[in-house]
Amino acid sequence: MQSTHPIEALKHQLDTLCETASKGFIRLSTPCQVESLMGWLNVQSVYPRLYWRARDAGAIEYAALGVVKAFDSLGGLQADLAALADIGGEQPDYFGGMAFDPVTPGWQHFPGCHFLLPRIELRRHQTGATLSLNLRFDDRCPEAEIAQARACLAALEEEQPLPCLLPHVYQREDRPSQKEWAASVAQVTNPDHLGHTPKVVLSRETCLTTRETPNPWALLARWQVGATDCFHFGIQLTPHEAFIGCPPERLYKREGRHLMTEALAGTTHRVRDAQQDQALADELLADKKNSLENQCVYQQLLTQLEPHSSQVNMGEAHIVKLRSVQHIRRLIHAELHSDVTDQQLLSVLPPTPAVGGVPRESALAFIRQHERHRRGWYAGVFGSISHANSDLSVAIRCAHVGPEAIRLYAGAGIVAGSQPDEEWRELDTKIADIMSLLGMG
C-alpha cells in the first residue's frame, strides 16, 4: 500500500464502532492502492498469511492475514456458517483447505482440515482494491475483540517489492524412485488387481534440498504468470513453511443451489508447433486409455452428486490447454437439494477419482499401503467457503516450501494399458513449470 491512509480510515471506523451496539459478523472496509498483493503479504509479521484467486476471468484476488476464528472440522465450520446466517447481515468468507487423506498422518503444522476467517483481508477486484477488517461479536467479549483488531491494524506494514528469485543448487530425490514406481504400476495393472480396482492414482514426491529455499511468495508470483487458466493459492500457517500452488482443476463451485464441477483427467504434453500441438490434442481425445481415465472420474462424480441433486447434466469431452500439458475435461452442472451443505459435499466429493482412484476405498487402501511419502495437503482441497457461495480447487500442481527443501508433487492415473515409463514422463511434465522457475528445467 502506498500510504497509511487506509489503515487510519479503518482505525477511525473502529473508534466509531465502539459507540454502537454490534452483533454477529462485521466487516469494516476502505479503498486502498496496492501493486502486488503478494508483495504486501510478504512483509507482514502477522500469521497466518494466505493468498487465493479463483480460476475464472475477473475473479477477486484475496490476500488475508491473522485469524478471527478457525475450524479444524467441517462440522464446526458448517455450524458457524449457519449461526451467522441466522443472525443475518453481511456474511464472511472462510479460506483454507483439507488434506488428501485426513485418516493418515500428514504434514506437521497442517491439520487434516483447516478453514479460517481472517482478521485482515486485502481484496483486488476489477474496479480497484479494498482493505477490510473483520470482527465477530456474537460469541466473544466486545472489548477484547476490538483490542485484538486494533493490535492487528497496528502491526500492518507497507507493501514492498518481492525479492528476486535467485539461482540455487538443488539435490534431487524422487520418492518413489523410478524402479519402485515401475513396480507399483505393475501391481496396479495386474489383471487380478484391475478386476476390483480399475484405477489408482499413484503420486511422486520430488524433494529438492538446498541451503536456503526461495521466498515462497516470489516463487508463486512468478509461477502464476504462466498459469493464467488456473487457481492460485498460498498459505503460511507458520513463518518457516508454505504451501503454494497453481492447480488447473476445480473441485466444485457452488452459487446458491447451483453446483459446477468437472472431470479433469487424461493428459498429454504440449509442443510449440501449433499443428503438432493440435494433433496431440486430437490423439488424446481419441486415446482409449486416457478416455477410460476420464470416464472413471465423471462416472463417480455423477454417482456421488445424484443423491444430493434434483438434476445433474454433463457436457461433452473437450481439451484444456495449459502451459506444459493438455487435459481432457468434461463439465458437470447440478441443482442441489435445498438442505445440502458444503459439509455434505466435502464429505462425499474429495478425494476425486482424478487424484485417488476407483473405487475410492480400495484405491485409497492401495495408496495407504504402498506410498511411503506423505501427501499432506497435496491432492486435497483449497479455496473459499461462505453461506451463499463456495469455490474450491483440487490442490495439485503445488509445492511445499520449507527452510531447506522444496517438495513438488505430481500424480498419474494408472489404468489398464498404463506404461510405467510413459507415466513417469507425465509426472516430469506436470512439474516442468515450477522446475523451470527453479532453474532445473
UniProtKB/TrEMBL annotation:
This is Isochorismate synthase MenF. One of its GO terms (molecular function) is magnesium ion binding. PANTHER family: ISOCHORISMATE SYNTHASE ENTC. Its EC number is 5.4.4.2. The keyword Cytoplasm does not apply. Residues 178-430 form the Chorismate-utilising enzyme C-terminal domain. Catalyzes the conversion of chorismate to isochorismate. Mg(2+) binds at residues 293, 426. InterPro entries: ADC_synthase, Chorismate_C, IsoChor_synthase, MenF. Pathway: Quinol/quinone metabolism; 1,4-dihydroxy-2-naphthoate biosynthesis; 1,4-dihydroxy-2-naphthoate from chorismate: step 1/7; Quinol/quinone metabolism; menaquinone biosynthesis. It catalyses: chorismate = isochorismate. The active site is at residues 199, 249. It is an enzyme of class 5 (isomerase). Belongs to the isochorismate synthase family. Keywords: Isomerase, Magnesium, Menaquinone biosynthesis, Metal-binding. Pfam families: Chorismate_bind.
